Amino acid sequence: MAGTASGGARRNRLAPYLLVAPGILWLLVFFVAPTITLAQTSLTGAEGGWPAYHKALTSYGTHFFRSFRYALAATLLALAMGYPLAYFIAFRAGKLKNLLLGLVVLPFFTTFLVRTFAWKTILNDGGPAVWLLQRLHVLDAGGRLLDTTVAVIGGLTYNFLPFMILPIYVSLEKIDRRLVEAAEDLYSTPAAAFRKVVLPLSLPGVFAGSLLTFIPAAGDFINAQLLGSPNQQMIGTVIQNQFLEVRDYPLAASLSFVLMAVITLGVLAYARALGTEDLA
Amino acid sequence: MRRFVRWAMDTYAILVLAYLFLPIFVIVLYSFNKPAGKFNFVWKAFSFDAWRNPFAYEALYESMKLSLRVAAFSTLVATVFGTLIALALTRYRFRGSGAVNLLLVLPLTTPEVVLGSSLLSLFLDLNVRTGFSTIVIAHIMFSVSYVALTVRARIRGFDWTLEEAAMDLGAPPFRVFTKVTLPIIAPGIVAAAMLAFALSLDDFIITLFNAGNRVTYPLYVYGARRAAFPPQINVLATAILLLSLLALGATVLWQQRTLRQRGMSVTPLA
Questions:
Q1: Structural domains in chain A, sorted by start
Q2: B109 is a domain residue
C-alpha cells in the first residue's frame, strides 16, 4: 500500500487514523467518558465514596454472589449444550452446515423479552413443563417451576446460548481435518483424537464463548424478574431500581462500578490463565 | 459401540437445536390464541383475531415504529463507523491499533446494565434529557464494536494487491473503490448491518436506562406484564422472525453465489 510520491506516503500514514476517528471518538465520548462519570458519581455527594461502597458490598453482597453463581451455572450448562451442537455443525452436518448455523441464530431474531415471556408460559403452574414433571414424579403435586432458581438459571442459559455456540463453532471450523485423520492413522481412538487434538484446538472458542455467556448473564435482570421470585433477584435489578426508581445515584453508581470491576478482574485473570489472542 | 456413541451425540445435538426452538414455537402458537383475559399466557382457543388486527393497540404500534426508526438510524451510523475501523485495522499497520482493538472489545466484555447506567450518569451529569436521540446514541455505541469485528473477520486475509493491479491498469481511485474494494467488503458489511439492526431492535437493558419517556417495542413488552399482554405482541414477534428468515435466506444465497464465483469457501454469520 506504499504511496509512490512522498505526499501519498504522508497521506497513507494519516489514513488509518482518519478511518478510525469517527467510531473511536464515539466510543471515547459515549463509552469511556461515561465510565469515568460513573466513578465520579459514586464518589460525590454526602452519601458518596466510602459509605456508598460499604453499603453496596454489605447490603447487596448476597445479590452479587447470587448473580455470579447463577451466571456460572448458566455458563457451564450452555457449554454442556453448546459444545456438542457446535461440534455437530462443524464436523457432522456436511452440506447442511450453513442452514444449521442459520437455525441456531434464528430464534434470537425474536425479541429477548418476548422469548423470556414464552418461557414463562412454558414453565407456568399448570403449564406443559410442570404437568410433565409431575407425571414423572420429579415434582410433587404442588410443585412449581416458575419463581424458582431452576427457572432463572434455565432462562439465562437459553438466552445466552448462541454466544457460546458461535465462537466454539468458529474455532472448531478452523481445525485442519488432516490433523484428526493423522491421529486416527496413528491408531488413536476417536475419543483420544478428540481429547488430544480437537479439544485443545477449540479452547480459544470455549474461552470466548464462556466470557460472552458469563458476562451478560451476570448483569442480566430480566430472567430473574420474569421467571424468578424476589428470592432470585440479581444485582442488575438492584442497579436498575437504584438508578431509575430510588435514584440514590452514588449507591447505584457504586454498585454498577463494583460489578464492572469484578468482571474486568475476572476477565483478566481468565485471559491470563488461558491466553487471549482469539478473544476479539 | 462406536456407532452408538456417534448416534447418541448426534441425537443430543439435535435435541439442543429443538430446545432452541421451543419458545419460538410457543411464541408463534400463542399469536393464534384467543386469551380469556388481558394476559396471553394460558391457551384458550384458536383464532386469527390478532393476525387480522395486528395494530389494534395504538401504543404497541407506536412502539414498533419507534424501534424501527431507532434501528434504522443507529444501524446506518454504526455500519459506517464500524466498517471504517475494520478497513483501517485490516489494511494498515499503525501505532495504536492495539488500543483500538482493546476499545472495540471492552464494550462487549462490559455488562449491559453497566453500559446503560454509566451512559445515564453521563447524561444526568450534562443535564441532557433522555429520549429519542439518547437511545440512538446508546445503540450506535454498542453496535460499532459488533460491526467493526464482524467486517474485520470477513475481510481479513483478502488479497488487497487486486486494488494495486486495478490502479496499475489505470483505474482512477474512485473507480478502484466501486469496482474492486466495495464488492470485496460488501458481503461483510451487509452481514454486520443486519446484526446491528437486530441488536438494536432487540435491545432492552441499555435502552431502559436511556429512553426517558419514550417506549420502544421491548420496553412496551416489559410494561405489558403489568397492564395487558395481548396476542398482538406475539404477532409482531412472529412477523419480525419471518422477515429475519427472509433476509437471512436471501443473504446466504447471495453470499454463496458471490463467493462461489470467486472460488472461496462459505462461512456466513461467523
A1: 1-43 (no CATH), 49-274 (1.10.3720.10)
A2: yes
